[in-house]
Every structure is written in structure tokens, then in C-alpha cells.
Amino acid sequence: MAHPLASGPLKAFPPAPAGITPEALRATQPPLDSLTTPLVSVDQGAIRDNIEAMRGWCESAGVGLAPHGKTTMSRALWLQQLEAGAWGITVATPWQLSVALGWGIPRIMLANALVQPAYLRLVGTALRETNTRIVVWADSLRAVEIMDTVLRTEPAVRPLEVLVELGQHGGRTGARTHEEAVEIASAVSASSVLALAGVAGYEGALAHHGDAASLTIIRDYLTRLAGLDDALRDSYDPRIDSAIVTAGGSAYFDVVAEVLAARHAPAEGREVLLRSGAYISHDDGFYRGITPLGRGGSREFRSAIHGWSTVVSRPEPGLALLDGGKRDFPFDEGLPEVQGVRHLGSERVEELPGARVTAMNDQHTFVELAAGSEISVGDVVRLGLSHPCTTFDKWRALVLIDDVRAERPRAVDVITTEFG
């Protein structure tokens, strides 16, 4: 028989015998300070407000939304986005596509090429046995050839819908020229098991700032994408429900709407779909600095994700070491920011002026302290985080709280994720 302590609790949940299980947390809604660190909390109110802000923005801008599910890989959060009117869910990999199929998502866009035979056969089965709308991308003749070859062995009732991806030199994937993209589209149209359904692109890899020069680069690329849509419009397959033009990550969706929104006419079978994903939780770093809502407008997103980490060492003046590190908090788009401290035995988060994160190890974060800072071993530091995608993927379960701004936030639920 296994020892009762052989299997530890979920990260951030206290150990047995006084542990707080996810089930008990939902029932009792304990204060956040009763959980252990490191942990990442997700603000319920901020999630709800961000979803509504994005829904309202898309409605005003005249575009649709297929939010990128890779940000959270959480069925509960995906369903909230769908309930708010999202067209469907975008995924990044064939494996994520399989998760979306398993979760019963009605419309799925794979923002990538699908060339793995095993997953193509899975998609063939889904097209035959479900009503799920599945859309994939292609940026090469070889990708079209692989899809055609594999799917011809699958007696699917419906064709697999394909968007031709247009790229740009120095960007990520995508056909580099208009002429190459048109050739790929012709190959899709020539296949009996594929259906040309529109055009796709990703502008976010072309710039990383919100200055005028960056916006011009984005606008010029999107104008090329619009030109490809014009060139292919008469070739779109009549078997599809609607033709799709899609672009738009979380940094430049305002420019996407500016250039492409006039093409959005669902009643006429044409849809312009953004794929923004990070908006649902936003952050206190990269997206806070580049979000289109920061470039004007009355709506705002607010960060729903925060890190909490205990001081475990004060080895020298001006330095504190926390018990969370790269395995717990994101670091690829900027280090966490110190937002306050909850002293051991206290319930309130207080300011910690002058404190900043200078480095991270796997399981430690280095905090530089201002002279005279009152912070001791056992105190808990609240961190603002940068980049939602590399926050959610570090956690099997994140704690949902009522309001991070409350004097004593309470844990109200647990958000589970599926990252493989």
C-alpha cells in the first residue's frame, strides 16, 4: 500500500492531512492566504470584464472573433468565450486540435499546417462522424499534397476546409509571395477532399512595438492579405458555410479591423475573424504595453493573473529570494514585477516601494530591495506577470479568486488546464 504522503498535492494546495483539495476549495471558498506558494491566481472579475470588453470591441469594429485557445488550454475559459459570442476556438497544433475535438468545440481553426498523417486521419473521422467545422491552413504545395493523399483514404462526408496562409519575408510561416499563394490555392481547389475556404495570416511576428513605423509594417502586410482575398474570392468552394479572412493576434487587432473589417458580412457568407487570445487574462507586462486598447478607446483590459511567492531567504541586505521561479512564473517576455507584500500573519497586501525582480532561477526569484525595506523570511510577495501563454502552461490547476483588489481575496474555484 502506498504511503498516504507518497503523492503530493497540486502545486499551491496545502499538503495532507490539513490540505485544501479543489473540491473542498469550491465548497468552502477559503481566503487566498490559506493556500501555499508559489501559486498563480486568476481574477474572476477581470476575466469576465476582459471577455465582455473584447466582445464589445469586436461588435463595434465589425469583425468576428475566434480566440486563440493556446493561451489558456482551459475548457472552462473556452466555454466562457464561446458563450460570449466567439465564432469558435483557434488552436496552434494538431494535438491541441484533438483536445478541442474531445471537448466538443463546434468550430475549430488550426492556425497551422496539418501534415501529420495520424492527425489527418483523426480529422477525417471527425468530418465523417461529427458536425464540427474544422479549418486548417496551408502555405506550400507539399502540405496540400499530403492532405490530399491521406484524406483520399478517409471516406469523409465533408471536405477539409483550407485557408491559404500569406506570409512575409522575415516573418513566420506563410507563402512569401502573392503568386506562390495563388498557386497553393489552385492546388487546394483541384482536390476533391479539400475545400478552399479563404485566406489567413499572422502579423504579430512582423513587429513588436506600437509606434507608427511598426503599425505601418502591419498595415502594409494586411493590405497584401486583402489583395490575396480579392484574387481568390471567385475560387472559394461553394460547399463551405462561409469564406474566412483571418488575422489578428493580441497586439495589432485594431489595425486588422481597420484594414479588413469592410469584408465582414456574415449574412453574405463572408467573415473576418480575429484570433486574439491573450486578452482574456491580459497581463502586467508585454500585453499591457502593446495592447490596442492602450492606444485609444474607452474600453480597457486588466490583468487577471498574479503570482504569489514566499520569501525563503534574506542572505544579504537589499536581497530577498522567493520560493517561485521559472518553473512557476513566466520570464520570456519580461520578468515579473513586484506589486506588494503580505507579511506573515497579516491578511493585507501592502506596498513595497523600490522592490524589483532582477533574475530568476528554476525555483527562485531574486528581488532587489530598497534600503530600509521591511520584509522578512515568511512574507509573501505579490507579482505582476508578463505573457499569459507561458503562465497558464506551467500549471495543471490555477486558483480562481473573487477579486485581487479585495482586502482579503477569496479562492472561489479552480481552473484546470490541458497542456499535455
Automatic annotation (TrEMBL):
Q: Tell me the segments the record calls region Disordered.
A: 1-22
Keywords of the record: Lyase
Is Zinc given among the entry's keywords?
no
| Every D-serine dehydratase-like domain range | 304-402
InterPro entries in the record: Ala_racemase_N, D-amino_acid_metab_enzyme, D-ser_dehydrat-like_dom, D-ser_dehydrat-like_sf, PLP-binding_barrel
Q: Which GO terms describe its molecular function?
A: lyase activity
Family listed: Belongs to the DSD1 family.
Instruction: Give the matching PANTHER family.
Output: D-SERINE DEAMINASE (PTHR28004:SF8), ZGC:162816-RELATED (PTHR28004)
Q: What is this protein called?
A: Amino acid deaminase
According to its UniProt entry, this protein's organism is: Mycetocola tolaasinivorans
